[in-house]
Design goal:
heterotetramer; A: alpha/beta; seven-stranded mixed β-sheet; about 40% helix; B: about 525 residues; alpha/beta; binds pyridoxal-5'-phosphate
Chain lengths: ~425, ~525, ~525, ~425
């Protein structure tokens, strides 16, 4: 090969690299290993993590221990889905493109908004993307976010806002763990580009979304609802409540926990924002013979065409994870989604009742709720010793709930498991009472 | 409408299902008692109703309409379509990785944190920049992180800079990122050698410039020989020098961005470090930086802590206490599943293996470049800048267009009929009718030769009858698609017939078009 | 030779490899010191030398030339091509199953043994015969086990019987098994109703008859209404009645072989109880039997043992102490991985679910039969025996052959062009130009209707131009293949060019043929 | 659908089933479960097995703890390989058929015999199939089997021979654990259809195959060599030693342990037995246009054509497992197979030396060896307490080796693991010495 190139040695090919910049040594990394050894090394690392089959976990707070059906693995492992790049040549990418189109349809159905893109990175950065759209749309500079928005979403908003040249203002929660509507009304002004709320909110509270939307939009700001898509099977969709945009974390739809990623973010919007959406969008079209086909469409929004005028810089997104999402939703189906939602809803209320701790958000909750636990350190330690991870401690993110525990319920958490946790809770309550 | 293109929604039949709910073991309280009326969904989301076999068949059939890397040659320039060892999927799927909750306390996630710490260390060593954050979700997210770091760095020094320079060869994400980061994007020209035009750079590198974003080798596949001087100019202007790591596959173990003078680097783990691209993600775009940028890195950082009392116990932790941090770019700790694959890759190859990767990537590119320079090809597809290339190279379809009347798009579409994926086309923008070809190191000599044969054959055919290429592809599941029509009257979701009456006019004015997306 | 049909051996290039050996950590003694010279291989086996990416591409590309159940309708009669829930692959792959050594002591394999015990129990209940051995490796192995049990049973009673009866509709494995079990195979006729000819049976059922092997429903898809009388005749003759369970999918939870009077049953787990067929296995062929046959079952048996001291502790064990056993049919405990899938299936469905399976299987078959009886089809493909069918039915291609000049083989090949798999053809032997159609319960109404439409279309096309079918298929990776030539000059392994000079004559006298294999 | 059929109810369809034979009740089986619950049930069962990643296992005795590369899983899980039936329609089965052809080629290379079929069930029953071929070929009635043949193979031979009308005679092992050639010479007579030996034999002994073949074939019997295909990478192939048939267990080639199955059996033979082979054979041919293609060939041997005159009754075989075999061999490649064989060979001898127990088969061994262990019960218990399964106890199958332990080595058993076992062995030896 060198001869054909007209080079004498491999080194010749790197003649353009200035001598002084060459690494005159080997990279300081451990020696390479055989496949078997790498497998063993990684298996040993993995064994030092306590995963969700090794304990009964009530931890949620943004990612949840749902059952992922085998069809998802089967289909995602197909090389045809796993190994292509973004579908730049639609004629040999109809599989991936149609999946995107179907995904968009499913997200549109869930959110009650007519348009969706084919995925963004994940939940919190999806909020930031919504903020950017609001900025482009309104040219305003303030973002108002409920304290019920996931702490990571609020953090990501703030980080990105520094670039967008925007300020983030927070609206507190009421004593019942819901967004304070009056405070929201006070926070929103003529320079507010977008208002961010979350449904259910970080504490699991079912927000009065209609009221929040009405209030939030009063001065022309966009109402952005972050949502967990799974409970949207039983909750009125944000779009029907008047949300302009609905974004969120898609992990709950057939994706692994994966210590936090990769999963996918979704981004749905009202029709009028179609040409300002971030990321890939698949559209239906025809070929020269009139056959139905799908393409990446509205590409003039995107960085590779529009460059500095693009509506977002996103390029590689989360196509495979979005595929998991649409396969999962198709597996659940129209009825299954409702059944699963109702099961979670009932179990959540049952668990809250059974635990009997003081409630931080006493109103309606789905899939998650927050309570105050007397001597929370001891309770958590006790539960963990029993192989139960009892929930997420709110203290770090919410100093006002220093003794707060956020308890998540999925279809994997059976009544028996809830009862076991309730048994430990009873001990604590009695201990305190005694 | 052929059954073959039905969406899953159109296959739905009332009452069918794949899912069965687990036993409903708690009291059957009606939903109305648990939720306020206004919060309850009135009509169910119209998800499809299908059985498991039909679900499987639908997506299996769809999948077979995709070209994919495991099928054949995929020389998509700038995308580094290298083979993804199958081991990586196995180790990523280990329950200890795949089923680990991101909020598991560090005490019970030591394996994951150590893995991340090791990946940080390895990436730092490869980049020659010691501080690494794995958090960004993809390359462009890494770019944004880089500019937010740049902003924080300048602001920390009390400076307000307003412009960021990008070469005219830059990938679209670079200028797009500049705008998102609140800067004005300013273009720098390319010299006759394919490198940064130094005069232009000098002129534009004023004290309002926050950063120069550079890819090296650049998107022409050329290593910028003036990199030392470039770094000097940029640093003299007080700006940061940002390395778009999309092309790192050319220089691993050979030259390190840190040693070239770069301050911040992003890695496209899904390019250089193997991730199955998934039809458009997931990926990950970690960043590495120098000491002066480090205080601003996102939180949390994965850190190693040693026992206080001088014990040799090591434990890994998430460090949130970084006062100057730019904050969080996303939820949790980043795309951990991608890090597992990256780790497996680096562990398999070791330092010398990574160097081999770059050497063979460059060898393959130069070999293919030579094969495409011969008579019968070279006159139609001249090389844009005739130098030794790095891991990729760019041809111009100028000759073919002028002499054969077939555009680069036509050539690309015709390649589809030959079972190879076309190169990236119409990028970089400054090359007329560009074809950007990156074979990667995992391709065999036979594959490269076969591709050259295909190109020659297509050109010869076009000399006979250009119409074949112009109307290509002919053997794919669909023919050339009407992209203009799709954008003009966008249909971006399926709706039942009633809601979405077919537009019989749409097919008629179909004018196939194509873009040089990447 | 097109690159597309190259074997992996032809893709080999010296020095390439996918495998890397793990660290060689023991003293490097030369092989010559460890093995006698005469035992050492002189030249390495000529395995291919390929990289992992090329390995993956080779087999991925090969795979795409297969029709498969996840692609479309596969009504292969007698084969029960039902959907295999994807869960089954997941649970079979759990390390506790997949990585369990067969000689792990029972104490540390309690999960596996309990699973087998439960499968035994469930199969016994389904068959109505309480004693089960999971050991046989497939249906035909189960048949052989059944006849060896029959032999042992008779010999134990001091009888030497020499003949075994099989209906003329029997599957080929039945008579083949008879011979292997050392018996003479004697054919019993079929009556005008499609059942066993009772007169013929009575005549042949002498005291030299060891067994009657029967399928019920039989291979015509018909339930033998005279089963009581058949059982009586056979038992009166002192013979055993053997149930070929390949068609069990028709009667689960409806009628049990044990209750019909059968003594021994084999199950084709890979048919009735879902196993992905794997292009020809693996499967498993457990057997169930009545009390009088039980003493002879193979060893080991999986047994449940309760604590001696009246404790309720249960543990599972392998019982080798069965003095009258026929011994072992194979290594270890049978195809355990297949049992895991079977268990998952039975556990998913429960008793009523299994009954649903049979009911829907029979419903689907009768519906498709009705669709194929209409004008435009029925006159060309008359039903062989016009009765309500069970899970499958047999048509005769007589009409098409006589009136259109297209044979069943031509119809089958033309179906390939329509993306459906043809039925089993030319079996059972007593039906002229037979098409044996088994849709299974996992197919939708739309699939059945689509198939009927395809058949109608092919027949209509044949009425216009029979040549299209006669030269079909036209859209498959290869056209009709020369099977006669392959058998005449068999090439059953690849050899390097030098050793295996191409036979240019072979292609010439290609006369396509086909068989009614099943 | 019922209307189209002309039936009133589902029950109508079963009118042919005599009333008295109907099951007038539901099957007595537990109720059906959701996918998630079935998964959990099976995961709980699986957790009660101690698998080969949960201990360091030196147990072999016919199936071995080899590393199965990820490519095998990837390719075997493709629906295109996983879900078709036997390739009866070659035009849409070229994938499966070419795999068979390649498999046959690989087996032929390993065994040194020109023809191979596309798989039989597994190892021991492959021996029985060889016996049946020998019976058809020679019309003789005696089978002679070395005591070095796997006990399961000897048992399966005996079981099947009862049907074939054949008798099985055993040839003992020498004091060195190899087949006794003189006894073999004495056992073979004019009515001997086949002689069975195994390479390496059950104890791991490398047999003097040439001598055994010569002796065994003297009176016209067929020499059948059972073999583990993996060590054939370094051992002279049975075909070159004069074996007529070579059969064996394929688990070691890329197949799981699976508690004993499914794996595959292979069956290779001299050219002259081609038309008597059992099972499927793929052959190369051409289509009408002269394109290369593959078909199932020589089907007139088979049950579906030849019925009671078939050369065997096998129908469903082990195609998917055979695919694993050829993928695995292609992954190893020409050099890898040798490297792996040499690694096992060296480690085996190292382990035998390190353990220091009295040797049952002191001569050359590959991958496995047998030793006498003083107070074997205590040693095994001790090792298991340390997480080591030290080997297979020979007592049940070989009363003459009541204290015998068969120790297997694969590329997964590292020097460190061997040394750990050796450490325990030293304790026992010292304990006995003391
Ligand atoms: C040169 C270059 N820079 C940046 C990117 C953006 O990376 P990502 O797609 O990971 O966001 C790409 C990806 O195509 C690229 O080629
Ligand atoms: C009626 C019948 N009996 C027996 C068999 C043999 O079963 P197996 O292929 O599992 O050996 C079959 C398989 O096709 C069959 O259809």
């Amino acid at each position: 090969m060198l001869a054909a190139i007209g080079a004498e040695s491999l080194d010749d090919l790197f003649a353009d690299v200035p001598e002084r910049m060459r690494l005159g040594r080997e990279l300081d990394l451990p020696d390479g290993l055989s496949e078997q050894e790498v497998y063993e090394d990684l298996a040993a690392l993995a064994a030092r993590n306590r995963h969700a089959d090794e304990e009964v976990t009530f931890v949620g707070a943004g990612m949840y221990d749902h059952y992922v059906p085998a069809v998802v693995d089967t289909l995602l492992s197909r090389s045809e889905f796993l190994t292509p790049y973004t579908p730049y040549q639609p004629e040999v990418s109809q599989g991936g493109l149609q999946v995107m189109f179907e995904f968009q349809t499913a997200i549109s159905e869930l959110t009650g908004l007519p348009v969706s893109n084919a995925s963004v990175y994940e939940g919190p950065s999806a909020c930031a993307a919504a903020a950017y759209l609001a900025k482009l749309e309104t040219r305003r500079t303030r973002l108002v976010a409920s304290r019920g928005l996931h702490p990571h979403s609020r953090a990501a908003l703030a980080t990105h806002a520094a670039g967008y040249g925007m300020e983030v203002v927070e609206v507190p929660l009421t004593g019942e763990g819901a967004t304070d509507v009056e405070a929201l009304a006070a926070a929103v002004d003529d320079d507010t580009a977008a208002v961010f709320v979350q449904q259910p909110n970080f504490l699991g509270t079912v927000e009065e979304l209609g009221e929040l939307a009405e209030t939030g939009k009063r001065s022309g700001a966009l109402l952005v609802c972050a949502a967990d898509p799974l409970p949207l099977g039983i909750l009125k969709p944000p779009g029907e409540h008047g949300a302009d945009l609905c974004v969120g974390e898609g992990q709950t739809l057939g994706n692994r926990l994966d210590f936090g990623g990769p999963s996918f973010g979704f981004f749905a919007a009202d029709e009028r924002f179609l040409r300002r959406m971030p990321g890939r969008i698949a559209g239906e079209t025809r070929d020269l013979d009139g056959r139905r086909g799908f393409v990446l469409t509205l590409q003039t929004r995107e960085q590779h065409i529009r460059r500095e005028k693009a509506t977002h810089n996103i390029c590689t997104a989360q196509a495979l994870n979005a595929l998991a999402g649409v396969v999962y939703l198709s597996w659940l189906g129209k009825r299954g989604l409702v059944e699963l939602g109702e099961l979670m809803l009932r179990r959540t209320h049952y668990a809250r009742e059974a635990l009997g701790f003081e409630r931080i958000n006493p109103g309606p909750v789905v899939r998650e709720f927050a309570v105050r636990v007397p001597d929370i350190d001891a309770f958590v330690a006790r539960a963990r010793a029993e192989g139960i991870n009892p929930g997420y401690r709110l203290g770090r993110d919410y100093p006002e709930y220093e003794d707060g525990l956020l308890v998540a319920i999925t279809e994997r958490r059976t009544k028996a498991q809830i009862d076991a946790l309730a048994g430990l809770a009873a001990e604590v309550r009695e201990g305190v009472a005694a | 409408m052929s059954a073959d293109t039905l969406t899953i929604f159109e296959r739905s039949r009332e009452g069918r299902r794949a899912f069965t709910a687990p036993a409903d073991d708690v009291p059957q309280v009606p939903i109305e008692e648990l939720l306020p009326a206004g919060a309850i969904r009135e009509r169910p989301a119209e998800l499809p109703e299908v059985s498991e076999p039909e679900l499987v068949r639908h997506y299996t059939t769809l999948s077979s309409k995709n070209f994919h890397l495991d099928k054949g040659f995929y020389p998509l320039g700038s995308c580094t379509m290298k083979h993804n060892p199958k081991l990586h999927e196995r180790v990523a799927a280990l329950p200890g990785h795949a089923r680990l909750h991101p909020l598991q306390d560090p005490e019970h996630a030591q394996g994951a944190l150590e893995l991340m710490h090791r990946v940080q260390g390895a990436l730092g060593e490869i980049a020659g920049l010691p501080h690494v954050s794995l958090q960004p979700s993809a390359g462009s997210h890494g770019e944004l992180a880089g500019l937010l770091l740049t902003r924080a760095y300048h602001e920390d020094r009390g400076e307000q800079r307003t412009r960021v320079l990008t070469p005219d060869t830059a990938h679209g994400t670079n200028p797009a990122t500049v705008t998102m980061a609140g800067y004005e994007a300013v273009k720098v020209g390319t010299d006759s050698d394919g490198g940064v035009d130094l005069d232009d750079l000098r002129e534009k590198a004023g004290d309002d410039v926050a950063c120069l974003m550079l890819t090296n080798p650049n998107t022409l596949g050329l290593f910028d020989r003036n990199i030392e001087e470039i770094a000097e100019i940029v640093h003299d202007a007080g700006a940061t020098l940002y390395y778009d790591g999309a092309n790192l596959n050319a220089v691993m173990g050979i030259a390190r961005p840190g040693d070239m003078g770069f301050d911040i680097v992003h890695f496209n783990l899904h390019k250089t470090f193997t991730q199955p691209h998934g039809g458009g993600g997931p990926g990950a775009g970690p960043i590495a930086c120098s000491d002066r940028i480090a205080p601003f890195l996102p939180v949390p950082q994965v850190v190693e802590r040693r026992g206080d009392n001088g014990s040799s116990d090591v434990r890994y932790d998430l460090d949130f206490e970084r006062p100057k941090t730019i904050g969080k770019l996303r939820g949790f700790q980043g795309n951990f599943g991608v890090f597992v694959r990256t780790y497996a890759y680096i562990r398999s190859l070791g330092g010398d293996g990574l160097k081999d990767v770059s050497q063979v990537a460059v060898l393959n590119a130069n070999y293919l470049k030579a094969l495409l320079a011969v008579e019968g090809i070279g006159e139609y597809l001249p090389i844009a800048f005739d130098r030794t290339c790095m891991h990729e190279f760019v041809l111009s379809g100028r000759g073919a267009k002028e002499r054969l009347g077939v555009k680069t798009l036509d050539l690309a579409k015709r390649m589809l009929d030959h079972g190879v994926h076309p190169p990236t086309v119409y990028f970089p923008l400054l090359v007329d009718e560009a074809l950007m070809i990156e074979p990667t190191e995992t391709e065999t000599k036979e594959r490269l030769e076969h591709f050259a044969g295909v190109v020659r054959e297509i050109l010869a055919e076009a000399a006979e009858d250009p119409e074949v290429a112009r109307s290509a592809p002919h053997t794919t599941p669909v023919g050339r698609l009407d992209e203009a029509g799709a954008a003009k009257r966008p249909v971006v979701r399926w709706r039942p017939e009633a809601e979405n009456p077919g537009d019989p006019e749409r097919a008629k004015d179909a004018t196939a078009s194509g873009t040089g997306a990447m």
